[in-house]
Write a structure and sequence with these properties.
The structure is a single chain. By secondary structure, the chain is α/β, with parallel strands linked by helices. It has three domains: 217 residues, no CATH class; 55 residues; 203 residues, 2-Layer Sandwich (Nucleotidyltransferase, domain 5), CATH 3.30.420.10. β4 and β5 form a beta hairpin. The protein is globular, with a radius of gyration of 26 Å. The termini are far apart.
Amino acid sequence: MKTVEPSTTQSTAARPTVTARALTGCRHRLALESRQPDDAAPATDVGAVLRKAAAAEHRSRVRDRLAALGPLTVVEPGPGAVERTLAAAAAGAPRIWGAVLPRSAGRSGHSELLQWTRDGYVPVLVVNHKVTDPGAGATVSPIQRWEPRTDQTRKARVHRGDAMRLAHLTRMLRDAGIASTAATGGVIGADGERILVYDVAGLLPGYDERFEDRRAILSGEVETEPMRVAECRRCPWWHQCEAQLAAVRDVGLVADPTSTRVLAAVGVRTVDDLADYAGPEPEGLGASLRDLRAQARAWVAGVRLVRRRPTVRVRRADVEVDVDMESFQEGGAYLWGTWLRRDGVDIGYRPFVTWEPVPTRDEARSFAEFWAWLMDRRAEAHAAGKTFAAYCYSQQAENRWLLASADRFAGEPGIPTRAAVSEFIASPEWVDMFIAVGDAFLSLDGRSLKKVAPAAGFAWRDPEAGGEASMAWYLVASGREPGHDDDERAAQRRRILEYNEDDVRATRVLREWMCSPAVEDLPVV
């Protein structure tokens, strides 16, 4: 691995520039962040800190792998990184890691990798999310060389942020005079196995329009207003924006962004307008007009949860098992928690866990034990002529790690085949309570378990309980974070198990409430 030595020169810019991060996400958040002093900005949430750390670890692993596969010039960060990048390019380095490009035309940016092609460089990003799925038709390249070809085993998973950043860097490479004439770029995803190749030429017109808009926001040339979008769930500014929207009774408080835009086109701009709307259903709504009007009327009435119909239904069984999985980012699923209820009697909580930092082979042991226990309860119920059901809340995460665990540990003792897992999760005995709640209710606060279970009278013992908080606890519990003694690690392990137990109890309590007369206290749409 060749390293370009630091120099004493640092590139500077005379005016604010647009980074690739500014090109995606909420326009109003960008304006707020750009116009507030650093000490006035809301604190970053723990999940964002953990995701940033995980991304840095992933980039480090990819860099080391690339260095082992062939010549790799590494530009050390810090003052003079731009000059070191240009010097490496001038020297004809085939691959440049950590490239920082000269600021130009109001842009600043860096690329994890610059890959030389026949007449210049293309940018290659390294990201900690999936960039392909099983399928066909993706254009990919081996990570050790630039050799794009169609892959009949993978299909592309395109991310807007990746696309905008590649276009941004392509413009900067052209301004620096070192770009390939083939306007392409690539992304190495979480698996680190291949480069997904993008046709950047087709992205440039949309990028240019987006760039001009974001530059105008940063320079204060245009005003922005709060608007409720998916990003609001994690945004530290949301409470401020929500208050502004509530003050004007903005329809976006109850309608999704797509519906908000469509409704505005027909003059529906407030929650009250929507509650009273009697016109035809506009084309292009993101949800049914019936649901949107019901949510508006609930908001006006001060009701957060309403029934869709008089009778609430959810699948029940003689033997019921509630399941909740805990994973650590892309590392693996370290905990499978269960709550068993048989013939109306609660048997209780049982966890299947490994405290070795994931990924670890011990994960195979804990998963195999969980699967065997679950299938034994199923078989026992069938043998006794009883019905069986296992429940989770939003099966996407559980299904992902059920299948991934079967694939990763195939052939090890007790590990089920992928076919066996697929058969189970496709059966009516695997019940997603998230879907059941969506069929039964409309909620102004969303359908997350933390939002809905309190309506059934359930409360988590730990006031900080949550998926992102548990990842911070896991760093200590697993020993990944140094500086903690055995007592501290044991305390965090107990905290995680208590949180996981509360999650499975919450789904059980919610289901009982949905089948009880108490649910009739909620108004009907």
